[in-house]
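A quick aside before the break. I want you to see a complete sequence-to-structure record at least once, exactly as it would be stored in a machine-readable document. Don't worry about memorizing anything.
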Amino acid sequence: MTYTPELTRLIIDTYTANPCRETVELISQQTGKPSRAIIAKLAAAGVYNTPAKTTKTGDPIVKKEELVAEIENWLGISAPSLAKTNKLDLRELHRALEKHV
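That is the input. The structure line, written in tokens, reads:
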């Protein structure tokens, strides 16, 4: 898709004033361009913020490695095999230790 410099500036200015998905949809309606094209243009300009990924319950996604690193830090130990533990068990251990640290 071709964008004039004026349209590009309008898209970037509008999005940076309120960076959210609703703004992308609004720009899409105003310009008649697909929202994916708007997102691609914003990403190419380096201003698009991808939404944070969340679980089905809305909690932020946390990697097992992050949980293990924090538990090891709290306990002052190195436990490489802890990373092989089930993620649900790791989260439960993390929650329990978090209350005492």
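Two observations worth writing down. Residues 64-98 form one domain. DSSP finds five helices and no strands in the chain. We'll return to this after the break.
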